[in-house]
């Protein structure tokens, strides 16, 4: 199903696909906290056991990935052997959530780390791969786990430390997507398709507060949204929604202000996965949700449902990530951000 048409490089950072790759299936697996939130009805599977039947949080995250990927493949209706590559990543050191979750699938894997922007990175690389004719089907998958992330990046849960109001709650969830090639000879209509991507740059405003991820990531989100609009000759009104991944309430306010300062007002179109996934009046998550799983399960649940039902026709999906480790933070480094924009339209 290789395409012979020419894809288009747009501006400095964007690619427009002549035969847009399509998302033929998607799956979401989440934890108990997410299953009590406002998006619960959109998720494929809610697991109330924090270890997903395993004997550690980390093994539980791998099991969550395995379930999401298995379900996405089953829902696609294609044989596992037809999937040429998997692009996947998580927040744990050496990507152990992903690698141990995928090791028995016998599919070539590219392990990715873009912090909480990894879903956008995985979708972008998947779309480029099939659009270039290197595969007919690829799979993108990302995950995060609240307890595993807290243990690695902040404090052990047993410590019971206080969290400032700017802090976000790492989502326990995994989202998986099967991406298929489309061509002039065999177009695939009726599916959401990835029309274009804009790859983000590392943006560092000098923020050092690891409890305020929104402030770290908002400048990168503003930068890539501005560049996508410029490269693709689009305006905010061209979208039903402009959806950031993990900014939460604090980061969303910063994003809107930064773009207004540059002549772009997205307040009417803007939505943030971290704000949508929890009910802050009932669930004390402070600024909202974050983590690789936050944008992934919101896309696999709410966003693609709205597109498939044609309530929305075009969205700009912008997962956001804070590029830190315990080493960089403890050595006093700043926390740069990165974000990737994926233009998704209903076919």
If you had to describe this structure to a student in words, what would you say it looks like?
This protein has 347 residues and is an alpha/beta fold. The protein has two domains: 8-180, Peroxisomal Thiolase, Chain A, domain 1, CATH 3.40.47.40; 192-346, Stage V sporulation protein AD (Peroxisomal Thiolase, Chain A, domain 1, 3-Layer(aba) Sandwich), CATH 3.40.47. It is built from ten helices and 17 strands. The strands form four sheets. Strands 1-2-10-17-14-11-12 form a seven-stranded mixed sheet. It has a six-stranded mixed sheet with strand order 4-3-9-7-5-6, with helices on both faces. α2 (57-76) packs across α3 and α6 (213-232) packs across α7. The longest helix has 20 residues, at 57-76. The model has no long low-confidence stretch (mean pLDDT 91).
Structural topology:
Blueprint: E1 8-10, E2 14-16, E3 22-30, H1 32-35, E4 45-46, H2 57-76, E5 85-89, H3 96-102, E6 109-111, H4 118-131, E7 137-144, H5 146-153, E8 169-170, E9 173-180, E10 192-198, H6 213-232, E11 241-244, H7 248-261, E12 270-272, H8 273-276, E13 289-290, H9 292-308, E14 314-318, E15 320-322, H10 326-330, E16 337-339, E17 341-346
Parallel strand pairs: 3-4, 5-6, 5-7, 8-13, 11-12, 11-14
Antiparallel strand pairs: 1-2, 2-10, 3-9, 7-9, 10-17, 14-17, 15-16
